[in-house]
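Checked the freezer inventory, then went back to the computational side. Two predictions to log before the end of the day. The first one is the construct we discussed on Monday; recording sequence and tokens without edits.
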Amino acid sequence: MRELLNKTAGVGKEKGMEEMNSFELETFLKMVLEILNGCKDLQEAQTKIKALLER
């Protein structure tokens, strides 16, 4: 799981999870939670997150 988060957190940046400060980590997790809460199922959430990664 940490490896996936490291890859995701590094999009557009060269930071790993270990280098994120508490505010950045909290903001990132809130964004993920907002996406998950706004989706009907896991497939929709995955599609939305993949679309964000491709930007």
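The second is the one RB wanted added to the comparison set:
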Amino acid sequence: MSGPSNPRSFDTTSALFGVAIIQALIGFVGYLSFDWRRFTWFQWAIMLSAFLYIALGIAAKKHPRLAVGLGIGFFVAYLLAQALIHPPLVFAGLIHKIPVSVLLLTGLDQALRQTVR
């Protein structure tokens, strides 16, 4: 049976790719919901962060702990930026923040379980 050579690394990669998909969808829906001329730098950052999480997902194949750690760091920075811009935003959009948090924590769990070579 053929499969990934390191299943834990694959799980971390999948979690980061899942975050990328969610961020892209949230950004795209926001783009469709607002007039594109009113689309702020922060909304662009949300949508374009999908590329960051794709890159981290690719990097997770070789360095899962570093990749998921950076992913969590970027997501925390995103939440802090929301809190600084407009504090009620932190609690808005939980429908996307909870799944992203679960994916990142699952990726972290899998990365930490990986045996050191």
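For RB: The chain is about 75% helix and 0% strand. The chain has a mean pLDDT of 85. Let me know if you want it refolded.
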